[in-house]
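We treat protein structure as text, and this decision shapes the records that our systems exchange. This encoding replaces a full spatial description with a residue-level series of whole-number codes. Below, we set out a record of this kind in full and without editing:
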Amino acid sequence: MPGAKVYFMDLRRKRIGVLMGGLSPEREVSLRSGQNVYEALVRLGYRAQAIVLDHPDQIVPALSQIDIAFLCLHGGMGEDGTLQALLEILEIPYVGSGVLACAVAMNKLHAKRIFASYTLPTAPWLEPPEELGPTWQERVAAEIGFPCVVKPVREGSSVGVRIVHTPEGLIPACQATHSEFGAFFVEKFIPGKEITAGILRIDGEDRALPLIELRPHREFYDYIAKYTPGECEFIIPAELDEQTTARVQELALHAHRALGCFGFSRVDLRVTPENEPYLLEVNTLPGMTDTSDLPKAAAAMGISFDELVERMLLTAIEKHSAIGAQLVG
């Protein structure tokens, strides 16, 4: 069957499309990630093409020109499983996680429900009622407390995240988030350290990379802190004791697997002063910019940026071949 084609041979003769841009709020980050990946593939000797997507009508014509898709789209249809589904219909191998994993990870509420079903610790949360008012304010105060965090359900890179410190600020923050991004939820603020765990496929197995502790020079690790040089201090490895480090890495791997992710991801957590970790979210297409976490974690393990890109590329081949083998079987 076509899906069972083996792409390992003559990989450097394949046309690899690096898809970037898109229409989500993370477009500029995507462009930076994509350019870095494209340049790495060229250095490695692959037939790479940089494809900037500005409109959905461009997608099918662009895909007709490539053999393998290296996705550097952050947020929106490039990360939520939509583009992944189209690639599978067209039988074009693509890097990273499959349709369902991308769709679930992109929807933070779906992901948190799955974490809870596996009894994986995640920050407590509440979904808002249709009408916001005093009853909602009282419920958040009683069940979540302040400060709390208002988050869009389907945005990445901390876009639209608001920390609310008082009951009076809750409804205005919820209204603003709903107006800008639609569906949202309220999450308990977990004091402590901001930790991110990169996951990468090494020797046929998804493994946790060295942990990174993030110390933003802002209220929290927001969009500016993530992508502006000098706005965040990266501590590698994270300043956690050996037992907590192992526990966080194990939890990150559990979260990655619970959502059905494959090949690579980035898992964001908070670790309390008592060394209790809480899952926040899983990113199936982590940033590949000069300030991004996954390349930093890989470098701490002795994996260069170019080697990281090549390992990510090979996830497309391994996943596609495995799917084909299952279809034949």
Q: What stands out?
A: The chain has eleven helices and 13 strands. Confidence is low (pLDDT under 50) at residues 1-9, 324-329. The longest helix spans residues 305-328. The longest strand covers residues 193-202.
